Amino acid sequence: MTDHAALLSVAREAVAKASGIIRSMTSFSVAAKGDRDMVTDVDLAVEDAVRAFLARETPEIGILGEERGHEGDEDLWWALDPVDGTANFARGIPLCGVSLGLVDGLKSTVAAISLPFLDVTYTAAEGQGAYAGEERLEASNATKLSDAIVSIGDFAVGEGAEVKNRVRMALLGELGGRVQRVRFLGSAAIDLAWVAHGKLDASVILANKPWDTMAGVLLVREAGGVVVDTDGGDHTVRSAATIAVGAGLRDDIVATIARVNG
């Protein structure tokens, strides 16, 4: 049986180390790694340090990092984004974070997200609730779209981006005419953590990269929210999209996405 409490302690220490590195590296280089996609040497330094720490602490558990790929066990593995929101970080925008989730089978069971420039760490373990520091989190109880603040994930880049972004533009039009406010934060980790924290009522990320999402998905669920795919089915590591929402808005958000996908 997986010891979630012990692994949560490991995850918390890992993201603390990562945030310390991010705050300490006041100068860095930026390199292109694809169409309008970038990596900094901070991303690489953080991932290498966290990988080394996790290899010592949990050698039996695999790891998938955004920059270095997958190593080890493919049934139980850590999903790491060393700097989620790299474009923000590279411009000095403080909306970025370290995201670390433990994926067991198709779902995450342990999560830690540290926001180094906002001085907060979010944590969760399956069945034990979600927390910002010592504060237990509760997702939004909003029931009307007109009361909702909804974040939308980044627009697509790379191959096929034009087609994918037509859907995002349609979604922006639908939500912009109905919700209280739409936000683009540039970090999936923050989008999901803030849905768990009740700062956002929903987050619609039309992608599902495990290093971006798996920690935040668990936070939302443990805070009483729901996370689904575009068809309204339960979100897993294999889902095409990551739609996190307070339970009272689930049907309205799913119906809105269905209209733009139709």
Fraction of helical residues:
25-40%
Rg, alpha carbons: 17 Å
Counting copies of identical and different chains, the oligomeric state is single chain
What is the N-to-C order of secondary-structure elements (H for helix, E for strand)? HEEHEEEHEEEEEEHEHEHEEH
Largest sheet: 8 strands, mixed
What is the terminal separation in angstroms? 43 Å
User: Total domains, how many?
Assistant: 2
Fraction in beta strands: 25-35%
In the CATH hierarchy, the architecture of the largest domain is 2-Layer Sandwich
Question: What do these coordinates show?
Answer:
The chain is of the alpha+beta class. It folds into 2 domains: 4-136, Fructose-1,6-Bisphosphatase, subunit A, domain 1 (Fructose-1,6-Bisphosphatase, Chain A, domain 1); 145-261, D-Maltodextrin-Binding Protein, domain 2 (3-Layer(aba) Sandwich), CATH 3.40.190. 35% of the residues lie in helices and 27% in strands. It has 7 helices and 15 strands. The strands form 3 sheets. Strands 4-3-5-6-7-8-9-10 form an 8-stranded mixed β-sheet, with helices on both faces. It has a 5-stranded mixed β-sheet with strand order 12-11-13-15-14, with helices on both faces. Strands 1-2 form a two-stranded antiparallel ribbon. β8 and β9 form a beta hairpin. α4 (161-176) packs across α7 and α5 (188-196) packs parallel to α6. The longest helix is centred in the first third of the chain and has 21 residues, at 4-24.
